[in-house]
Amino acid sequence: MTIREIVTAIEASMMFGNQDEKIKHVVSRCENIKDHTLFFHFGKRDINKEMLSEMNNYVIVTDDKSVAETMNGKGTLLIVNDSKQAYWDFINYYRDQFKIPIIGVTGTCGKTTTKEMMKHIFRKKYHTHSTYLSQNGLQFNLNYLLGLEEKTDVAIFEMGVAYPGNIKVSGKYFKPTIGVITNIGEAHLDGCKTLDAYIKAKGEMLEALDNKGMLIINADDEYSKKIPMDCYEGTVRLFGINNSSDYQASNIKYEESGMRYTLVHSKNMYEVYIPGHGEHNVYNSLAAIATTHMVGIPIQEAINRLRTFNEMDRHVKVHKGYRNHTIIDDTWSCNKTSVMSAIKVLKKIANEKKEIMVLGKMQRLGNKTKEQHLKLGNMIMEMGGVDHLITVGPDAALTGKKVIELGMDASKVSFVDDAEKLDSVLESICDKEPIILFKMSLGKMKGAYREVVKKYCRKS
Questions:
Q1: Residue 413, strand partner residues
Q2: Pick from 22, 80, 175, 304: CA 20 to 30 A from residue 343's CA?
Q3: 453 SS3 class
Q4: Is this structure's pTM higher than 0.85?
Q5: Are strands 247-254 and 258-265 parallel, antiparallel or unpaired?
Q6: DSSP letter string over 350-414?
Q7: Apex CA 224: angle with CA 369 and CA 115, to 5°?
Q8: Helix H or strand E encompassing 92
Q9: What sign does the dihedral 210-216-222-225 (CA atoms) show?
Q10: Given this model, what pLDDT does residue 448 score?
Q11: Which run of H or of E encompasses 416?
């Protein structure tokens, strides 16, 4: 983009510089400036004068004319009435260049897998842009938006919720035309404080859609049903298993390396196979098929593509590992909804093997941490318990104490606080080729616990 185009878009006046220069990068932090960068300067933030002295082709947008002194006549200086308003004017201008399907995906669990399934389906025909893995923090939004190019046919953006208002902000960047809510569980209570506030925060997807467009939602999810829909004037499509849906799965079966089910849509029936175990993956695939179908991919074509989908690492991934033990590595994140999904897989594929569950702390629960870990103990016992539970750390220990209180044999519950002790306990109880579920949040941890999981996942 040329500076001339930007001047018009944000209603700026040029104090000095060259309107015909081209911009290749846009930033809002001074340390990220390089040649051909457009930098939005907010408030009275300091500007690194020494760094700017080494560059010539950069642009600063500011409402502070004194910034000119820092630039020493180099680069281009654009003056606006309000820098933050100019920033959002630029965001709106850039986003509006693209008349393509933009898909926003949120949910407590499954949003990354669902997004990756969509990418896999789309890529054969469409140039697809998306967020990277599960990196969906607000700080990434600008770069993700600017990743849209002239050749982009469709884009898929994860829209996470750490606090109320997060999806509203992401929606201002991405302006999705299709919104997907995979499910809503009890999570992120540190930022949202209450479940009701968290449900409302997820419901901001409707506002991101400007209360129109297309919403694709889980018909079986009780908390998703609590999203206020009074003002929504768009189209809703449902996916599910138990309740009547536009995209409904039945005859669900576990196979050696994945799931098979029958999809019913508009009275037509399709046989579906997806790699990876668990009903949660059936829901993920239903959401992906429904969304890609709305964009224009025939259902059978989407199904054919999903057969070659690669399971995501550390997302309920099954390994034949150490000493021929069966290992379920589900160490990407940990919340109550995902614990339930993982236990269901453990029980479906255990085939009378000794069930061992290694449980870590559930994340981002704030002052609800104790309450939620005690509730998890109830849930585990309601699901039939396991043969041996190993808790890691003081918070997960609350769950261990709760299952003992509810009747589990205390000798079958172990409490560990370090990786060496975890390995020792596993070595002592792993007889007759058991099945071990590692349910922990090790997404950012590369230390000793991760090495224990790797040891057991490797075939010896």
A1: 389
A2: 304
A3: helix
A4: yes
A5: antiparallel
A6: -TTPPEEEEE-PPPS-GGGHHHHHHHHHHHHHHTT--SEEEEEHHHHHHHHHHHHHTT--GGGEE
A7: 90
A8: helix 83-95
A9: positive
A10: 94
A11: strand 413-416
